[in-house]
Amino acid sequence: MSSNYTDEAASSRFSSAAVIAVLCFGSLCGALMQSLVIPIQAELPDLLGTDPGSASWAVTATLLAAAVTMPVTGRLADMYGKKRIMVVSAAILILGSLLAAMSSTLAPFLVGRVLQGMAMGYIPVAISMVREIAPPERRASAVAAVSATLGVGGALGLPLSAWIAQDYSWHGLFWLSTCLAIVVFVATLVVVPHIHDAHPAHLDVLGIVGMAVGLAAALIGISKGSEWGWTDARTLSGIIGGVIVLVVWAWYELRHDDPLVDLRTTAQRPVLFTNLSALLIGFAMMAQMIVVPQILEMPEATGYGLGQSILQAGLWVAPGGIMMMLFAPVSSTLINSIGARTTLSIGAVVISGGYLVALVLMNAPWQLMVSSMIASAGVGIGYAAMPTLILDNVPESEAGSSVGVNGLMRSVGTTIAGAVMAAIMTSQTVELGGGVEIPSKEAFQVCLLVGALAAFAGALMALLIPAQRRAPVAGELQEVSG
Asked: Would you identify the CATH topology of the domain 3-203+258-481?
């Protein structure tokens, strides 16, 4: 870490605590976009005058846009400065939210949702910047706080969105996100200091196009596999074609002087195993977000459903988001005392434990709330350790893009989780009545077990990251970085 970064941040009109608070708030608002439409997803076909398959893109398009954008935004931040890119991301969020708020048909609504997904590029840039502006003794806790907003935003978005959609117009969801985006834009512009963190390079346009095409094709094939059928030509062509494009893209990137993603850095063991852990933990986190709300909302007539409304289900899972934030300081303490590698592994084990608790405690809403709180505590611990491991093992000139790739790997994990959970739930069904097929209790239990196994695999993967001890910087607590 160059000392001039911290010196420039210290000369800002605002304290580092105020800057970190803005970065946390901006990241939280970006993460909210993930779950904004989930409470109204079933009603979107009628609201937008379209079919259910087309309406499902309201969620898929946002996740895909976020996955593709994160590495690109991180690279642009490395090249042109982090504050500039965060301001642009906030402006994109304003535009996307406005467009969605004013839409009543599918096409402009989806464009707005894509822009909202692109704005999530704010998050990896904020994570990489916080290490530059936080005082040495607070760096670990600051990274932990910003990282935790990834999970907190998704968890708190469910009850907030359900309440607004239930008591007000569904357009109110997007007017709210517009107002939040304006606050983020102004706060980032005014409070976040401009530091000389740009590393000029040539923009790898072909690399951006190749990665976008390959990722979009592969992730669309995976996410739509259960809906289209895994042997459908669209599914196979998307997955196979996407993989082929990504292989060609990787070959090109390895031969480029200024690549979008430095694959040699990414292939280094500490970074590689951190990203693989991110994929598995992202999978595990998404499994909880899919399974628990469905069990809560299933009719009691099923024998296992808990008959909760969308709003009630959102409120039952909301404490999980609070747990993520509460455990961010715990994570920073662990990182400083036992290292980021071990901290990441502990977080994954706790997530796995939460799923195992849900396997035996799923007969009442409070029981699922407890299991969600346990798993969410693990997310809070693990999510803070991942960017710490990345930032400790990459050059400063690649900090933004490397954290962006780590975010991409989490997104890939969540996409795969959605496909796997859907396949499991459609393979084991029972008839509710009137010819309606719903997932069986055993299907949900298998999903929980798969989530637990994925988290445990993430814990083992984290232990493969080589231990690395570095000398403390003046005034900084000694850190053992896994």
From this structure: Growth Hormone; Chain: A; (1.20.1250)
